[in-house]
Amino acid sequence: MFPLEYVELGGSGLKVSVIGLGTWQASGKAWGADVEDDQIVKAIVRAHELGVNLIDTAEAYGGGHSEEVVARAIREVGRDNLVVATKVHGGHLRYNDVLKAAEHSLRRLGVREIDLYQVHWPDPWEQVPLKHTMRAMEQLYREGKIRAIG
Q1: Is 1 inside any structural domain?
Q2: CB neighbours (10 Å) of residue 62?
Q3: Rounded to 5 degrees, what are φ and ψ at 39?
Q4: Which stretch of DSSP H or E encloses residue 114?
Q5: Which domain holds residue 75?
Q6: pLDDT tens digits, the chain, 150 residues: what are they?
Q7: N or C: which end of the chain has fewer CB within 10 A?
Q8: Direct distance between the N- and C-terminal alpha carbons of the chain, in angstroms, rounded to an integer
Q9: Which positions are annotated as active-site residues?
Q10: Is residue 66 part of a domain?
Q11: pTM of the full predicted structure?
């Protein structure tokens, strides 16, 4: 086994493993994924045991189901041992929609703050100006609900 390296995530002060674990497969039966929730939790726990601390999820993965599965793993390994990154859906980029989506993600993840909150993809149909999305992200940051913006 080799030791993992850790780097600072931008200027956030968050130290993340150079290898992260994505949880798209934790979408339940959505998108043809056929992986049991318990398997995903075990994979996250094992990744943590091997030094991985960066866990990536999104509200779009299984309609939030992935965030709920990640919450189970957080309870097993402890909140302070993971850096949780999640993403706002591209269709939720208006100011109030970002705030509402973040609240839903916080609840599903069972945490008080999201370590890294990211825009999943820009919505090509709505074409919401990025400044509206970023204003909401900055508000969430000021309120202590997110630690870093991506």
Answers
A1: no
A2: 22
A3: -65, -40
A4: strand 114-119
A5: 6-149
A6: 568 999 999 999 999 999 999 999 887 766 656 789 999 999 999 999 999 999 999 999 999 999 999 999 999 999 999 999 999 999 999 999 999 999 999 999 999 999 999 999 987 777 899 999 999 999 999 999 999 999
A7: N
A8: 31
A9: 61
A10: yes
A11: 0.94
Structure tokens at 113: 């703050």
Q: Looking at the chain, how many residues does it have?
A: 150
Tokens of 107: 């609840």
Asked if residue 95 belongs to a domain, the reply is yes
- Pull the structure tokens for residue 144: 């202590």
Write the DSSP symbol of residue 4.
Answer: P
Residue type, 123: D
Q: Write the single-letter amino acid at 121.
A: W
In order, the DSSP letters of 24-87 are GGGSTTGGG----HHHHHHHHHHHHHTT--EEE--TTGGGGHHHHHHHHHHHHH-GGG-EEEEE
Burial of 87 (0-12, 13-18, 19+ CB in 10 A): buried
